[in-house]
Amino acid sequence: MKIKRLAIFGLCAAVSLLASAQSIDPPKERLVNIADLETRNPFDGIVSKSVYTFTTAIFFITIEAGSSSSHHNHPDEQTMMFHSGRVRAMVGDREYEVGEGDVLVIPAYVPHQMVAIEDSSWTEVHGPGVDNSRAWEMAGN
User: Fold this and answer.
1) What is the DSSP secondary structure assignment for residue 64, as one 8-state letter?
2) Measured between alpha carbons, how far is residue 110 from residues 55, 124, 128 in Å?
3) Which helix or strand (DSSP H or E) is residue 135 part of?
4) Residue 94 maps to a domain
5) What global pTM score does this model have?
6) Number of compact structural domains in the chain
7) Which of 60, 112, 124, 139 satisfies CB 3.0 to 4.6 Å to 49 for a cystine?
């Protein structure tokens, strides 16, 4: 029994030494201004700007009244923080009217669609689920 414990301890120590011998370069911090981000138009009437971190993606969205996203889903959880306007959100088999001050959490793979009742804006945080490491590298990190 004592030999078995020593063997396990020795194995753990060896694994620990190997892991600590590897050089780990963590992602570096960065500061960006929303005004400097590339503007995309994923759908008519919708403007999106994005920042990718190593584990999440952050989107700044503005949408014109009457415009909508497609009905879609994705492998990452989506948290939406609404800043202005009103939006009809279809999430799974439910419908919500959301607006300033509301936070909507959409689990991974749940189909959803946003339709703007008024000109609106919100911030979305996606993750984890999508491997953002390539987008992070392309952003200069």
Assistant:
1) -
2) 20, 15, 15
3) helix 133-138
4) yes
5) 0.74
6) 1
7) 60
